[in-house]
Write a structure and sequence with these properties.
This protein has about 400 residues and is α/β, with parallel strands linked by helices. It has a domain at about 10-250: Aspartate Aminotransferase, domain 2. It is built from 13 helices and 14 strands. Strands 1-9-8-5-4-2-3 form a 7-stranded mixed beta sheet, sandwiched between helices. Strands 10-12-14-13 form a 4-stranded antiparallel beta sheet. It has a 3-stranded antiparallel beta sheet with strand order 7-6-11, with no helix packed on it. Strand 2, helix 4 and strand 3 (about 100-105) form a beta-alpha-beta unit. Helix 2 runs parallel beside helix 8.
Length: about 400
């Protein structure tokens, strides 16, 4: 019988309990569910800002909304370019397009799955307006080199920390290096409110811009408030804030459990032919939103797909190849399906003298290699030694079968 694995899709893999219920009760009894009049979302923002050591945090309705607010704070002109990673959620790319900028994709290191200063630099042009770095799976980008590049080119850095709570680079939390940090509270993240997100910054002008953008650009508290520019309603509700606040107060313990079980799995699979534990960025703390198992297809026929499918059949929660293909091969980007048939912002007056934007996987060999060779294991704070042992035993058994040419 396969072992029943904890899943972050339900209570088996989520630490939701009385603490969340107590704060939800407080909100319901208050009768105020909107954050503009309530107190819990503000309390959550203050606590998370303090936790991160930054002066400003504002909550949003989703992680996508957080990235959108960050891009809006940078305020690109139509047709400007923002360099990002091709291994990411579409929400992080749609935010760029909705602000009339063009996403440009830097390659990744095939061992860490992250963009690097070199791959970002290769995509910077005179149209580049910002750099987005995504700390994939909870493994930090090499921020010293990224920030040196950003300073040389005078470009703001947006850190996508949706998968990187408590992740550290050189004893500093990711999210505290760039101009803006974005987090997600989606169901499967380190902490969750079902949906939700946060943006953080140190610069008061960026903070002001994001505060306005999240709330229709209405100047609450201003002497003569108005709707100053085009902006949506991305407010978080007090109900989300209650769950988020309770989750935040458990965060460090839950992350410590993820790290401990991930380290245990790495030790248990050491020496298994054809499979490799995650490569952690030097001088860093990886916090394992997911556990990225690298597979050598020359040793194991069928590679990541064959190994992952057999692991799934044995009851291990995993995704061979993760997102299957780089983001730019999705129809919306490949065919420039944006606003009607306009292809805006790919086609616009501001880009009249620019070459057409064509995405080609040949430009990102590291990304292709990374996706072809990875099996991404589900991971959460409810994993215990028995679960890790089951996963390790399954990997060892399945890898042995593939290496021997069985099946």
């Amino acid at each position: 019988m396969p072992m029943q694995m904890p899943s972050d899709a339900d209570s088996s893999g989520r630490s939701l309990g009385q603490e969340e219920l107590d704060l939800l009760t407080r909100v319901i009894e208050s009768g105020t569910l909107n954050c503009t009049k309530g107190t819990v979302v503000r309390e959550f923002e203050q606590e998370f800002a303090s936790f991160m050591g930054l002066p400003f945090c504002r909550s949003t309705s989703s992680g996508t909304a957080a990235v959108h607010a960050a891009v809006a704070a940078i305020d690109p002109e139509p047709g400007d370019e923002i360099v990002t990673t091709p291994i990411t959620d579409m929400g992080a790319i749609a935010a760029i397009l909705y602000q009339a900028a063009v996403p440009v994709f830097a390659d990744v290191d095939p061992l860490t799955y992250n963009v690097t200063a070199d791959t970002l630099a290769a995509k910077i042009t005179d149209r580049t307006r910002a750099l987005v770095v995504t700390h994939l799976f909870g493994n930090p980008c090499d921020m010293a080199e990224v920030m040196e590049l950003a300073a040389e080119r005078d470009l703001p850095v947006i850190e996508d920390c949706a998968q990187a709570y408590c992740t550290r680079y050189r004893d500093q939390y990711v999210g505290t290096f760039g101009a803006v940090a974005c987090f997600s509270l989606q169901q499967g993240k380190h902490i969750t409110a079902g949906e939700g997100g946060m943006v953080l910054a140190s610069d008061p002008e960026l903070a002001r811009r994001m505060t306005l953008f999240i709330d229709k650009a209405w100047g609450y508290g201003d002497p003569k408030p108005d709707h100053y520019f085009l902006a949506p309603n991305y407010r978080m509700t007090e109900l989300q804030g209650a769950v988020a606040l309770a989750q935040l107060r458990k965060l460090e313990g839950m992350v410590a459990q993820r790290i401990a079980t991930a380290d245990l799995l790495s030790a248990k699979i050491a020496g298994v032919p054809g499979v490799f534990a995650p490569v952690v960025t030097p001088d860093s703390v990886h916090t394992y939103w997911r556990y990225a198992l690298r597979v050598d297809s020359e040793t194991l026929p069928g590679g990541a797909v064959a190994l992952g499918r057999r692991m799934q059949q044995a009851g291990v929660l995993c995704a061979p190849r993760y997102v299957q293909k780089p983001a730019f091969e999705c129809q919306v980007l490949r065919d420039h399906r944006t606003f009607g048939d306009s292809e805006f912002p790919y086609r616009c007056a501001q880009r009249a003298d620019a070459p057409p934007v064509v995405y080609d996987r040949a430009d990102t060999p590291g990304s292709i290699e990374a996706l072809e060779g990875v099996v991404v294991l589900g991971w959460n704070e409810r994993y215990r030694e028995e679960h890790v042992t089951f996963i390790a035993d399954t990997i060892r058994e399945v890898a042995g079968e593939l290496a021997a040419g069985e099946g």
